[in-house]
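A quick aside before the break. I want you to see a complete sequence-to-structure record at least once, exactly as it would be stored in a machine-readable document. Don't worry about memorizing anything.
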Amino acid sequence: MITLTAGTAKAQILPDMGGGLAGLWQGDRPILRPWSGNPDDGPFALACNLLLPFSNRISHGGFTFKGQHHPIAPNLPGEPFPIHGDAFQRIWTHHSTQATADLTLTRGSIGPFLYDAQARYALAPNALTITLSLTNRATQTLPYGLGLHPWFPRDAATRLQFHATGCWPETAQHLPATQAPLPLHPNPWADPAPLPDAWINQGFSGWDSHARITQGPAATSLNLTATGLTTALLYSPSATADFFCFEPVTHPVDAHNLRGQPGLAALAQDANLNASLTLTWAAEAPNPKVTP
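That is the input. The structure line, written in tokens, reads:
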């Protein structure tokens, strides 16, 4: 495990578990839901996962690109479709300093995708920036994507705010029910609003790459700012869950099988795709001086 510190902020990274975050804290307050600490709970018990070379599910046993069908087998037990690429299942090499960590994945491979990837974590006293870079190493042009899967604390006081223009309704198989997003009007989260009490697992198009999460006294509120990520996925199983996910990604669920393959980047051999996410929060106020 890699531990980064900056002021009273701390981040822990697990290169052997897909390069994901085990936790992010401001002092003793969790900014992300901390890892369970048990590797047997799987990668989605982490605080944040790295999603490459695609985000979420791909249906139909694969996809067709430029007239060629590319099969992809499911990669998780119990999942009928491949999900979230393979980077979160790989071991990353790494180099770190006190406040930065550089991780490298060589020859990630799932279905037709063959790629190298880099991830950089840079911690400041009141911010964490995660930068992702992917290079296509396949000999053919292919549609790539990437994203991040942070897990945020949730309680009755949690409020979410973001702006988007459309949304994809979900089928029972957790796939988009429509080929194109439906207009999001009105947007329930145009102003800070609670999460729904029931299940939600929905993609949002036209996201402006900013969001704000406010929390109760047990957790730290924060702002999200993304670069190169214009789709957001919102997931929460119920009001009784102690977490929710707001995932900044390049493309909607099953984009490889949607009309026009929205959000995906057609990368020729050795071409790159880059994106970043910055989480910013209010640093703890310094202890007041005591005058004798």
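Two observations worth writing down. The longest strand covers residues 113-124. Confidence is low (pLDDT under 50) at residues 285-292. We'll return to this after the break.
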